[in-house]
Design brief:
2 domains, five-stranded mixed β-sheet, globular, 495 residues, mainly alpha, 5 strands
Length: 495
């Protein structure tokens, strides 16, 4: 991806881009052991015991990477976060490569890389072993290859775009929206003739072939991703979600990077050949705002492109050395200020006192308290008479709770947890006993199906950290009206 200047019309990628990407990775890795596992990471660790070609709420890629990371590097937060940190650094590098593809010199490349590295959404995504960081990298690579195909007459790059899209389909189906938006952007732009390119359609074929395993899995399970999408749409389409959608876009990119983003959008709109990308970004932004405004980060895969375009626009004005330093320093300063809010750098005691942090950065709070939650469940389990423990199960209200019990529970000899949430609902109860069920955050779901449910305890997060599990109740339900299979369908829920 660093071919000579004759291929792209710009100097080879400068050392600054690589240094910025390396610094990004170093910061992410330094913070990777702070606090603990995120609920999604625990879920993916559990999915490692149920490897499949697909899951209700994502493709197999992220759970597989978590599983392999734990096998090769150990079962710790820092081990499973190595690959996401590297993927984030790769996204930063691709930001510089896109600037180069647009004709930017080393200043533009470095500015694009800095802005990409400093974006709060990318800083946060690269910290956790989730799906978002791979989506961000996939989208950035797709736009890099599309730009090379369109601007530099490299039609074989459509094949590489197809490869990336196909791999991304094994991560999330969101890349289908990107493909549709790009197609519509080309259709209404002067570049519409590209839609007849055999290389483009070959790339589409490659993407479809690589994404086929997940599609087959979805089809064989009744397309649960569709039900999942409807649940998310219902949950995140309120007036409040719409009111906060556009401000969230600005926060996720970094407020101090907004001038650069504005320059990037203007650059894409004013230039004939890349204009279709501005159209695609606008269409996707409108779709998210209208259909699922509670997920503003769904459009953030465009950020490396927009920052790169803005960097090229700034460079073309031939600013003075002082102004160049100011352009570089502004998003960098924003990134530095965001670090303490995005990454778990604060002492936990300080973080616990900042109650607003749960709304400002939900994910940080969700990395606290899982071992202690498991200990609380164990105390209830151990309090059962021995004869009842032999016929006891644990049922949780969400996959994070189930993932915590599955990961930490074996040390206490707790039974394998059950849940009706997302893919746990498909894994089912198996041969789990049903005479006694410890209900963790799920008594409302179980009460209609049991004769008796009694309260046992309320869990409080360490230092009373404000998160979803703080205050969750633990109950014990006995005397079921029937076996698990008789009421399991009523326990399933997606969100």
């Amino acid at each position: 991806m660093t071919d000579g200047p004759g291929r792209s019309g710009a100097p080879a990628v400068g050392r600054g881009v690589w240094l910025i990407a390396a610094g990004f990775a170093a910061i992410e890795l330094a913070a990777s052991s702070r606090y603990g596992f995120h609920r999604d990471e625990l879920y993916f660790l559990a999915a490692g015991n149920h490897l499949a070609l697909g899951y209700v709420d994502q493709g197999p890629l992220a759970p597989l990477i978590v599983h392999l990371s734990a096998l090769m590097m150990g079962g710790s937060p820092s081990a499973i976060r190595v690959v996401p940190a590297l993927a984030g650094a790769a996204t930063v590098t691709v930001g510089g490569l896109i600037a180069r593809t647009l004709g930017g010199g080393r200043f533009a490349q470095a500015l694009a890389a800095v802005a990409t590295a400093a974006a709060p959404v990318i800083l946060g995504a690269a910290h956790l072993a989730g799906t978002t960081v791979y989506d961000l990298l996939g989208w950035a690579l797709i736009m890099l290859f599309v730009l090379r195909a369109v601007l530099h007459d490299q039609p074989r790059c459509w094949l590489w775009a197809g490869v990336v899209a196909g791999v991304d389909l094994e991560n999330k189906n969101l890349v289908l929206l990107l493909a549709l938006a790009l197609a519509l952007g080309l259709l209404v732009s002067p570049s519409r003739s590209l839609l007849r390119s055999r290389w483009l359609w070959a790339g589409v074929g490659i993407a479809a072939l690589l994404g086929l395993p997940n599609l087959v899995w979805q089809a064989s399970h009744g397309f649960p991703a569709v039900a999942m999408s409807r649940a998310l749409q219902s949950e995140h389409s309120s007036g409040g979600d719409r009111a906060s959608d556009l401000p969230a876009q600005l926060v996720y990119m970094g407020l101090l990077a907004v001038p650069l983003a504005v320059a990037g959008v203007r650059y894409l709109i004013r230039r004939r050949e890349p204009r279709f990308l501005a159209v695609a970004a606008g269409l996707l932004l409108a779709y998210v705002f209208i259909d699922i405004p509670g997920r503003p980060y769904y459009t953030d895969g465009f950020l490396p492109l927009i920052f790169a375009a803005g960097a090229v626009a700034v460079e073309s004005r031939a600013p003075s050395a002082a102004r160049r330093r100011a352009w570089i320093a502004t998003p960098a300063l924003g990134g530095i200020l965001a670090l303490v809010l995005i990454l778990p750098l604060l002492p936990l005691a300080t973080f616990a006192k900042l109650r607003f942090m749960h709304k400002l950065n939900y994910d940080q709070g969700e990395t606290v308290g899982w071992p202690q939650l498991t200990q609380s469940v164990d105390r209830v389990y151990e309090a059962l008479p021995a004869r009842r423990r032999a016929g006891a199960s644990i049922f949780t209200g969400n996959y994070g709770e189930a993932g915590a019990i599955a990961w930490y529970g074996p040390a206490y000899r707790l039974p394998t947890p059950l849940s009706g949430h997302n893919n746990y609902s498909l894994w089912g109860p198996g041969r789990a006993p049903d005479a006694t069920v410890i209900a963790l955050g799920s008594v409302a779901e179980l009460q209609p199906h049991f004769a008796r449910c009694t309260f046992d305890a309320t869990f409080h997060s360490p230092l009373n950290v404000n998160n979803d599990e703080n205050g969750v109740q633990i109950w014990t339900c006995t005397a079921p009206h029937g076996p698990w299979r008789s009421f399991w369908p009523a326990l399933r829920h997606y969100d």
